[in-house]
Amino acid sequence: MKQKGLTLAVLALTALAACENAGGLRPLEGGVYAPTGTPRGEKSVDGLIVGHRLMQAGQYELALEAYYRAASEQGFNVDVLSAIGSANLQLGRLGQAERILREATKVDETFPPAWNNLGVVLMERGQYGEASRVFQLAFALDSGESAEIRENLRKALAKLENPTYSEPEEFRLVRRGPGFYQILETPEDTE
């Protein structure tokens, strides 16, 4: 009897809660409401901007979540795919990063950051020949304006000529907005 009373109380509270207009809801078919993801009267913050800030702070997993939120709002465009690939690269998920960055280069074959980041993944995987070709393409698409892409190309060519060649720093290039790029430094190994 107690169990039945408790069940009825939970059902009654659920029904009352369903009648409450909590804001930030949109009507669906049949009078059902779904959350919009933002409180009433507020606009959502661009997931790409949030993700870029989280990447800069070294919070790569949270950045990846923000990029997926951006994908749900904007679709899987070249900016979003490149950002998702870069976050996976920072998390050491090289296979996922490569797959996603290759997809980004298919979406927009003229986007230098996607090609550059793909080159970085290929370097990490020891595929120096393909990496140098990818960096050359990124350099050409960027009209040689990015010193960072030029440096990545130089390192790839040096590594191709001498596989034992190494420098203490590697750089990542991530697009931060139209025409604005920022370099992210690779975290050093703590082993």
Based on the model shown, name its key terms.
191 residues, mainly alpha, Serine Threonine Protein Phosphatase 5, Tetratricopeptide repeat, two-stranded antiparallel sheet, 8 helices, elongated, disordered C terminus
Task: Describe the overall structure.
By secondary structure, the protein is mainly alpha-helical. About 60% of the residues lie in helices and about 10% in strands. It has one domain (about 45-185): Tetratricopeptide repeat domain (Serine Threonine Protein Phosphatase 5, Tetratricopeptide repeat, Alpha Horseshoe). The chain is elongated, with a radius of gyration of 23 Å. The protein starts with a helix and ends in a 6-residue tail after the last strand. Mean pLDDT is about 80; it is low at about 15-25 and about 185-190.
SSE blueprint:
Layout: H1 2-19, E1 25-27, E2 33-35, H2 47-56, H3 60-74, H4 78-90, H5 94-107, H6 112-124, H7 128-141, H8 147-161, E3 171-177, E4 180-185
Antiparallel strand pairs: 1-2, 3-4
CATH architecture: Alpha Horseshoe
Q: Could you give the count of β-strands?
A: 4
Largest sheet data: 2 strands, antiparallel
Which outline best applies? elongated
CATH superfamily: Tetratricopeptide repeat domain
What is the N-to-C succession of helices and strands? HEEHHHHHHHEE
CATH topology: Serine Threonine Protein Phosphatase 5, Tetratricopeptide repeat
Instruction: Give the number of domains.
Output: 1
- Assembly type of the shown chains? single chain
Within the largest sheet, what's the order of strands? Answer: 1-2
Structural class: mainly alpha
The level of helicity is 55-70%
Number of helices: 8
